Amino acid sequence: MQVSANSTKVWPVYSPLDNPVSKWVGFVTVGLHSQQHNLTLSKTNDHLSRKRLVSGRDIGLVLFTDTDTGHVFIRNDNSVDVNALLIINEHQTSDPIPGACNQEFPLSVSPFQRLYETSIMNRLDFQLANLGFNDDQCEKNHRNLRYDLYVYYLPQNDFTEREYFRSLSVMSNVTEIVNVATLIPNVTQLRHYFYAYTGRPVVYNIIVSATTGAGYRHLSAYVPIVAYDCGINSWNDCGKQDVTILIMTIVMGLLGFVVCLRGHLWFQLQMIFYGLISGSFVSIILLLKYTDESETSVELYTCAAGLVMSVLWLSIWKLFHLPMLSLLLTGLNLGVLLMATLLYTPVGNYSVFNNDINYWLIMSCAALMITIVFPALNAIGLSVISTAIVGSYVSIVVVDRLIGGSLSYIIVNVIKRALVSHEPAINVVPFQTKDIILASIWVLLSLTGIVLQMHSSSMRSPFPAPRDSRQQQQQRRRSPHTRRHRYYRRRSQYDDDFDSGDDHSGGGDNRQPTAAEGDDSSYLYQHNNNSRNQTHRSSSGRRSRRWQPVPNPRRSTSANPTAPPYTTGVQRPAIDERSSLLQNQYYDRHQDVGNYGLTSGLGTGAAADAADPVITTGAYSVETLGANNYNTTNTNRNNNSHTVVGVVPNVSDSPPPDYNHLFITNTNNREYQNI
Prior knowledge:
With 675 residues, this protein is an alpha+beta fold. It has 4 domains: 2-227, no CATH class; 243-457, no CATH class; 468-500; 521-675, no CATH class. 37% of the residues lie in helices and 17% in strands. A hairpin with a 6-residue loop joins β22 and β23. α4 (243-262) packs across α9 and α5 (267-290) packs antiparallel against α6. The model is unreliable at 494-559, 561-570 and 589-654 (pLDDT under 50).
């Protein structure tokens, strides 16, 4: 119907002559609804008596067929025409009468509800019902009545009048209410609080039921009421994002995505991230609860507090380098998010959470348990899991705010509960298909972050080392022992398992003989003697000794430093690599065993020079120095192959210290690693 401006319209609900009601009808509930403007509803045309009329957008009254005429009067005091919806429901005499035990509302029988909207919460009030028309039976009949609250959400940002009237028609019929709305069973209080979801219109209604002795249930529905949850904003601005908040949300979303995938590996970024969100979370609660600052000021102060906290938390890590201390905010944020997610489900509507002490105590214990117990079991696991879950949630919030989802209210509802802590709120989540998709993406992104970070962390130290430790590691890398270790490690990586074509200069004493020393073999004998003595002292208690690096054959030892490295006829010393047991005087004594005696390469004087065999063909010249107790042949296979000189010492002398060792000499142009 349409009510003209500044006029009164009479509507006949029923008439004994023209439109009589059925005999089984005991009373009729009348609901009047207008989307934007207030209307006045009464049983008579007397608008001076406030006890006989009610004003509002979603109002109603009860007509008793025995006493009332069946007409209602609708008055429009606005300067514009108003479209209205009038809904009539007939009830039996045995049905409960909604609002018959009224104590606060203007009408003696008030079947409607009162709604007080804010951007944080909605407060819903109603009056008790009664069985029959006797007001003295309210207290007695109250025990036999059950009140079920129903919540029905409209589509996102749908503020059309058509959708408004459709939803009210659905929520006025008992059968359709049960089928489409979300149930909050057996409410006992006359006042209830609900979390507000901006941009999501919602319809509230109550069904009161009475059970007779025969087991029949009699149901009656109150007059429904609609809330748009826009606060002080108009419908045109409801649900729109502030540019500043949108930019900050996008920046935090990108940071959260990076933290989700690399949070533990980039530990300093993790400290900045948790300091930022922790400082912002605490500051916005304090600013909204204890100050009257404007929305812009609250945004600026929140950003400043988050930045200060991030710098402070990073400084604590830089100063102390204590992983357990730095994981404090990591565990707290994870615990709060997981507990807030649990309370976001229907579990949060349990009566135990209606008490503020129980609510915050359970929330705190859950956060502290994760913060204290988890690091004791696996500190790396806490860092990885927390950064993956919290970082992915922050990144998902960006998409959620852009498409009008509800996942962001997981944390927003905790903030709202802190701001209105003296009133427990009922949480009915408007979960949509897009929310299910976002929740699935959140789970997958969290698992991806956990797997990637655990895989990367397995190849690195658990936590970043302090600067002093890094300097010690660098000094350790420069130490001679570490350089020698790296040298042998490089040599072990040759392509050939047995030898290498690469020429590396080895360790040991690479001092070249002076001009005075020349190529005299006495220098070689003295040099090898000193090496054997040092080796014997350092190898005491061991049966054998690792090979020493062989000098670079390209490094010339001749008196002419300009000679090519592979010039024929240049004599080069061989390296005595015998074990400590073979470096015995038994092998160093002079033996008359022919031109190739054991002292031929270790002797002194001109005789030794004349006896030293020199191979002058092939790649380069080498001096053969070798002994094998059981090899009596002198073999020169070819010019470019192996050359072995073997002699048999005087076996009549005392036996050598160890028969199980061989004296091996390398006279080739390659260095052998394994033999």
